[in-house]
Structure to design on (250 residues):
């Protein structure tokens, strides 16, 4: 056997990786052994492969996903790591928002806003639409609002979101405009006012949906967030947003 080759056990100790991990990296094509014994299936590695093994170990210790690690080993380090960092930063922001919402629940208890039924008229509107994910919904909504404001002074402004916001979903911002070319349907809605930051609106949405279930109403439409304040002049803790969910007759 070539003396430059190290059996998998020695290579694992050299690179501070487990044999199990090296086998897995071979199976997914991330770090192939230099030689595999045809009879025993035993894996052997060259010493030069230690650098790639250490890169894998380092990046995995930083929670970099394996597909990104593969791109780094293929020479795409700058773009791959920048994208991984952006995703991690977005996830960190999401967790911070979740932590703030949890702190609010701990301080105030589970949300129990006053929910009431109301009949909403149809309105002529202009709309701005885009696609979002759970991680990007705040940024996408803000961008849609900015685009919607680039026009005549708005009347009522509402964000429309699907009841199920998993994977990718549409976001719509509708601005009341007598000259608008679209119609925002009216109907019967369960409604409550959310007080506080926009990122904590899901607390009130869940309370409205729970009220619907308790009173035998079936939600049939998207969630409407009617923005009652200007966030540029009202502190986040004092922002008022009317949450509306269209319901079917019992």
């Amino acid at each position: 056997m070539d003396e430059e080759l190290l059996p998998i056990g020695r290579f694992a100790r050299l690179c501070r990786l487990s044999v199990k991990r090296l086998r897995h990296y071979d199976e997914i094509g991330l770090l192939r052994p230099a030689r595999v014994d045809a009879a025993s299936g035993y894996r052997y590695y060259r010493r030069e492969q230690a650098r790639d093994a250490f890169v894998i170990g380092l990046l995995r210790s930083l929670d970099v996903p394996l597909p990104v690690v593969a791109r780094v080993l293929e020479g795409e380090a700058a773009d791959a790591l920048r994208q991984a960092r952006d995703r991690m930063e977005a996830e960190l922001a999401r967790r911070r928002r979740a932590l703030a919402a949890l702190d609010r629940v701990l301080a105030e208890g589970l949300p129990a806003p006053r929910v009431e039924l109301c009949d909403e008229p149809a309105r002529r509107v202009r709309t701005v639409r885009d696609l979002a994910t759970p991680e990007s919904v705040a940024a996408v909504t803000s961008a849609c609002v900015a685009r919607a404001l680039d026009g005549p002074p708005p009347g009522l402004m509402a964000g429309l979101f699907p009841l199920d916001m998993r994977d990718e979903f549409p976001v719509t911002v509708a601005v009341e405009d007598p000259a608008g070319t679209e119609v925002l349907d009216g109907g019967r809605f369960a409604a409550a006012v959310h007080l506080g930051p926009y990122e904590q609106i899901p607390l009130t949405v869940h309370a409205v949906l729970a009220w619907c279930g308790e009173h035998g109403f079936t939600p049939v439409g998207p969630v409407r967030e009617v923005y009652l304040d200007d966030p540029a002049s009202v502190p986040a803790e004092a922002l008022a947003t009317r949450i509306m969910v269209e319901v079917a007759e019992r």
In short: DSSP finds seven helices and eleven strands in the chain.
